[in-house]
Amino acid sequence: AQSVTQLDSQVPVFEEAPVELRCNYSSSVSVYLFWYVQYPNQGLQLLLKYLSGSTLVKGINGFEAEFNKSQTSFHLRKPSVHISDTAEYFCAVSEGLGSSNTGKLIFGQGTTLQVKP
Amino acid sequence: DAMVIQNPRYQVTQFGKPVTLSCSQTLNHNVMYWYQQKSSQAPKLLFHYYDKDFNNEADTPDNFQSRRPNTSFCFLDIRSPGLGDAAMYLCATSRDPASYNEQFFGPGTRLTVL
Predict the structure, then answer these.
(1) What is the nearest CA distance from A17 to chain B, expressed in angstroms?
(2) A102 and B97: CB-CB below 8 Å?
(3) pLDDT tens digits for B60-99?
(4) What are phi and psi of B103, to 5 degrees?
(5) Alpha carbon B27 to its chain's center
(6) Residue whose C-alpha is closest to residue B89's, from B1, B13, B2
């Protein structure tokens, strides 16, 4: 069965510092990977996705993530954070084409990014 | 802009009083999902529709029902809300499950049960 582990429940960081939010997954088939951001009392917004091709994926708001198949990781990074990046971040995985694709997303437990002035 | 809309954004109901949450989409997507998200937790899938085909998750309580009268609209009915049903309810859509499964989320409805 697939699962997603976000290794840090909270990440405090100072404004303009770099940040990395960690995500590991387990799956026996090819996967598609996503990072979503959720601001307070709002829905989830897609930051970026890995479907295939280049393992370095660039998303919105200056975020990027690197797919590492050997380490089954998909860590999210930003070189310089802003106060406005304070939010909950969710890593998610879905099964790729060719498998018994159910269309479901499996979410990690979320990481709260707290950007301090 | 194409989008997913949820109404109302905030809903207050009384213990045991039926409540309906609404979701509409202008994306013309085939699949619509309902998630429950409790405080500081990941979204939990309740069920989804692929066109008119209803797919219930095994652990979704019978208290939760859904209707999809047409492509654009989907409703979540909670027949007898309990205090434990207080949560954010998220609606999402995707083009179809055979694609890469990118889901587009609405802003959510926060349900309070008194």
Answers:
(1) 25
(2) yes
(3) 999 999 999 999 999 999 999 999 999 999 999 988 766 6
(4) -110, 140
(5) 16
(6) B13
A34, A43, A94: residue with CB nearest B90: A43
CB-based contact B102 A34, cutoff 8 Å = yes
Residue B93 token pair? 């859509």
Between CA B83 and CA B98 the distance in angstroms is 37
- Phi, psi torsion values for B57, nearest 5 degrees: -75, 150
Cα separation of A3 and A89, whole Å? 16
Task: Give the tens place of pLDDT for each residue, A49-87.
Answer: 998 888 999 999 999 999 999 999 999 999 999 999 999
Separation between Cα atoms, residue B74 and residue B78, nearest integer Å:
13
